[in-house]
């Protein structure tokens, strides 16, 4: 007992020490981080909370090791711990599910578990983003969600694929491109017999569709998390079966005929004002753009003066970054924008953080639209030492010079600019490292930077001409050309970039600039499988230079490239997408079941022990 107490004391002391170190080092980090321009409390009511270290103290960040090195080692530690604690049995998976979400898993969870095991899925427990997508819907009645799906599918111009599932099969599917419908059906084929009857709405646009005002969202979440889910949690012996088809659900032979739509079309118009309405009123994104203060909460996602992305979730949280309104194409003028402000169940392949679309694994990947071709790839040493990207001026539609505010243009312009860039130099003595910021002409890195447009599009004629004049447009590159380079840039276009998986599967190192979120955000780890980049971009040069030029960086570059490849082969197979989709649709099936609070999967051993007190 005594020894346990002293151990606890020791741990506490160590924690306090780490906290102090952490705070001190935060303070010594330089202007970018030491004095956040706009400290933001994410949770209301925490206004006066003192600045404290995160609950799990990260190792002290000191100039004594390179920030990239530190970020990699932190991320890998975290990732390996996650791999190591995955449930090994159905019972463990059920217990872990209950531990995380309070309620039992949905009906047929055992079927899901068997499916996942048979497909040799690596991650059995990491599906938090499904809860994240679906939680607000618990604030609506099942009947309301079903009615909204019918309403959305009943109006032709809503640009949705409708899939009507009846008796364990797709009875009808219509409304989109052949390939997307085929792939969607194909993805469900292996498990559709376990799903209840339901109407599903799949977005055919790349751009997200549902953004709910903050106050409505707050109310929905309150009902969901304080009333509905606790009710489901209180049930001890859940029923492991779906209810029979409710009378409001059609026989699935046709879509309803709806004459009015709640989706409004604003294509080719600025969308910042629409996109931020779900952000907390006191978040930076809600500040009046002209009236200020329009300052990003940079410290929420970046470290060091150069601003390496340390938290990709926070980076892609647009509520923290009002500057995105002027640097990201989707907010300038998206190519398509057809949105609704009430919570509709729309399944989308990617979304902006403030949107409420339900993320699902993209059929684009499943159909292998951008394949990785092993035969064109080569061993690391044969690849050119270059940071490479080719692509078109998508990301938004350009009118009246708007291309200057789009992200791809921002990246290509900045990488090729003639200004000064910041790098880190090691001024330590002997074995001691001491990294300090230094400004150097960007042209010193001309040789390793090969980032150019190869096509101009999505613009009014005058804007297209202007871009052709401004940029040095290179000849069109074949996809396979990418494998000739060690460092590949992958960035958002109109939405997620469909090349990502092919890039990861290659033997090159992938850099990712993504504000759009996808289903895989828990499964792919920044600094473990790819290098995340910010939109601000002061760290871009150093993020390449360290890997291409420093001895330790060179070793890490090849190791990470292969680590990403190995993981992609294990966790981004079509089987993985199917398993994730299966689990999502079981959750969705429960959500729209009138008995959703009393159905669920309970393992026999758990249901008899009754050791968990009801809430
Ligand atoms: C990253 O940011 C998210 C949201 O902004 C936050 O919830 C999370 O705790 C952060 N993660 C870490 C490790 O700090």
From TrEMBL:
Domain of life: Eukaryota
SMART domains: CAP10
Sorted UniProt keywords: Signal, Transferase
Biased composition (Basic and acidic residues): 39-49
Signal peptide location: 1-21
InterPro entries: CAP10, O-Glucosyltr/Glycosyltrsf_90
PROSITE patterns, A to Z: PROKAR_LIPOPROTEIN
KW Transferase (keyword) present: yes
Region of interest: Disordered: 30-66
PANTHER family: KDEL LYS-ASP-GLU-LEU CONTAINING - RELATED (PTHR12203), PROTEIN CAP1, PUTATIVE (AFU_ORTHOLOGUE AFUA_1G05595)-RELATED (PTHR12203:SF104)
Protein name as catalogued: Beta-1,2-xylosyltransferase
């Amino acid at each position: 007992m005594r020894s346990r107490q002293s151990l606890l004391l020791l741990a506490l002391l160590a924690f306090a020490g780490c906290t102090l170190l952490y705070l001190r080092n935060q303070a010594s980090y330089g202007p970018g981080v030491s004095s956040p321009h706009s400290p933001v409390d994410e949770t209301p009511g925490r206004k006066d909370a003192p600045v404290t270290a995160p609950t799990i103290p990260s190792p002290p960040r000191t100039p004594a090791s390179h920030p990239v090195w530190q970020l990699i080692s932190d991320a890998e530690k975290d990732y390996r711990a996650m791999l190591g604690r995955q449930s090994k049995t159905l019972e463990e998976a059920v217990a872990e599910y209950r531990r995380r979400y309070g309620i039992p898993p949905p009906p047929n969870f055992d079927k899901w578990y068997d499916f996942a095991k048979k497909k040799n899925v690596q991650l059995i427990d990491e599906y938090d983003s499904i809860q994240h997508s679906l939680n607000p819907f618990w604030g609506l009645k099942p009947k309301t969600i079903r009615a909204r799906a019918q309403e959305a599918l009943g109006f032709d111009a809503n640009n949705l694929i409708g899939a009507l599932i009846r008796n364990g099969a797709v009875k009808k599917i219509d409304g989109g491109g052949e390939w997307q419908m085929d792939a969607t059906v194909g993805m469900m084929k292996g498990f559709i017999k376990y799903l209840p009857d339901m109407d599903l709405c799949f977005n055919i646009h790349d751009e997200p569709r549902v953004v709910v005002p903050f106050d409505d969202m707050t109310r929905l979440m309150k009902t969901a998390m304080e009333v509905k889910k606790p009710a489901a949690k209180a049930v001890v012996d859940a029923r492991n079966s779906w209810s029979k088809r409710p009378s409001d659900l059609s026989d699935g032979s046709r879509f309803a005929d709806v004459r009015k739509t709640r989706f409004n079309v604003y294509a080719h118009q600025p969308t910042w004002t629409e996109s931020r309405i779900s952000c907390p009123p006191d978040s930076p994104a809600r500040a009046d753009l002209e009236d200020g203060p329009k300052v990003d909460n940079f410290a929420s996602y970046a470290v060091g003066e150069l601003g390496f992305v340390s938290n990709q979730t926070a980076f892609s949280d647009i509520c923290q970054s009002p500057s995105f309104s002027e640097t990201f194409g989707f907010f300038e003028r998206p190519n398509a924008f057809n949105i609704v402000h009430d919570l509709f169940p729309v399944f989308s392949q990617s979304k902006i953080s403030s949107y409420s679309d339900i993320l699902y694994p993209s059929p684009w990947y499943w159909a292998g639209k951008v394949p990785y071709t092993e035969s064109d790839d080569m061993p690391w040493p044969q690849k050119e030492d270059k940071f490479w990207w080719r692509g078109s001026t998508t990301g938004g539609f350009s009118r009246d010079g708007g291309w200057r505010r789009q992200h791809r243009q921002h990246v290509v312009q900045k990488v090729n600019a003639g200004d000064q860039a910041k790098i880190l130099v090691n001024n330590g003595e002997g074995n001691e490292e001491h990294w300090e910021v230094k400004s150097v002409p960007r042209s010193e890195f001309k040789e390793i930077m090969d980032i150019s447009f190869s096509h101009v599009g999505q613009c009014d004629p005058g804007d297209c001409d202007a871009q052709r004049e401004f940029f040095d447009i290179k000849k069109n590159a074949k996809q396979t050309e990418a494998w000739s380079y060690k460092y590949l840039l992958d960035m958002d276009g109109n939405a997620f970039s469909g090349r990502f998986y092919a890039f990861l599967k290659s033997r090159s190192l992938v850099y990712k600039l993504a504000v759009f979120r996808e289903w895989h955000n828990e499964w792919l780890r920044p600094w473990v499988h790819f290098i995340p980049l910010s939109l601000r971009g002061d760290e871009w040069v150093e993020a390449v230079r360290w890997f291409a030029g420093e001895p330790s960086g060179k070793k890490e570059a090849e190791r990470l490239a292969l680590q990403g490849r190995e993981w992609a082969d294990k966790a981004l197979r079509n089987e993985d997408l199917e398993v994730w989709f299966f689990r999502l649709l079981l959750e969705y099936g429960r959500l729209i079941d009138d008995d959703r609070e009393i159905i669920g999967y309970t393992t026999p051993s758990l249901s008899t022990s009754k050791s968990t007190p009801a809430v």
